[in-house]
Amino acid sequence: MFLVEWVWGSLYDRFDRRLLMGLSALCMTALFPLYTLQALIPYFVVLQFISGALGVAMGPMTRAWVSDESPAKSVGLFTSLWWVSLTLGQIIGPVLGTFIAQVWSFEYSFYASALLSFLTVLLIPISFPKRRGISGGAGSQTIVGGLKSVLRDRLTRFLFLSALFAFMGVASMRSFLPLYASGQIRMSTLEIGILISATSAAQLIAMALLGLVSDRFGRKRMVLLGFGLSSLAFLFFFIARSSYELTLVALVVSVGLSASSFLLLSLIPEVAPARLYGTVVGVYGSFEDAGFILGPAAFGFIWAAYSPVSIFAAASLTQILGGLFLLPLIRKRCRRK
Prior knowledge:
mainly alpha, globular, Growth Hormone, Chain: A, 14 helices
C-alpha cells in the first residue's frame, strides 16, 4: 500500500476515474478465490502484496472524489462521512467473514469477498458520474513531475508529515492497546473485546459529529484541538489501573484521534490545487501507511527496551509533533486553488 497508493492517486488526475476504480475492483474479484487454492499457499506473501497494491486504489480515488465534489463549506462533513463508511465496513466485514467461515468454511469467506468486489464493479457506474479529470488538469505532467510539484509545496509537505505522526499515534492504539490491556491490566478476553468495540463506536460517533462541527468552527482549529486532546489523553494511561479506567482513557484518546488523524484529510482542499487532488491524496495516503509501518516497529522497540506504558508517552509525542507541523497551516490563510 505504501509503495503503490500515490501512483493510483496520480492516475486519478489523468484518466477516467470510473474505469480505474472498476479495474481495481474487478482485479480483486479475480484475486480473492486464489486464496482458497492449496497450490498457492507457498505464495501467500505474493498474494498479499498484490492484494494491497490493487485494493488500495479505492482509498485515494474515493477520497480525492470527496475533495473534488464536496462544497467548500462542507468538506469536513463529507470527509467524516467517508471515514464513517470505511469504519462501518471495518466493523461489519470481520463479523460477516467469520460468520460465513463458521457456518460453511473459510473458503466461502473469500468467495463472499469476491462477490462483494464484483458488486462494487456494478455499482461504480451508478454511484459515480462520468467525468475525465479537471479542465487544465495534470494530464500534461508526468506522474513523477506531478509528484515533484506536490512535494515542492511547503504547506503540503507539512500536511504530509502531520499525517505521518498522527497515524503513528493511531497505530499505537490498534497494535498495542489489546496487548497492554491483557498483560498489564489483566483484562479478560471479553473485556478486551468490549474495549475495542467501544473505541470503534466512539470514533464512529465522533467522526460524524466533528465533521459537521468543523465546517462551522474551522477545520484547522478542530484538527489542532484533536492533536492537543489526544497528546494529553495518552498520558493518562500512566494512571489507569483498572479495566474501567483504561476503557475511559481509551475512549477519550479515540475521540482526540478522530479529530487529529481522520479529520486531517479534510484539509487537503485547503492546500492542494484541484488539478492535483488525486496525487496529493495518494501521497497523503502513503504517509498514512508509513505511520502504520513505523509506529508498530518504534513502539515495539520502546515496549521491549523501557516499559509497556512508555509506548503511550511516545504516542503522546507523535501527536505533539503532528500538531507542530500543522501550525504553519493554521497561521497561513489557505484557500482552494
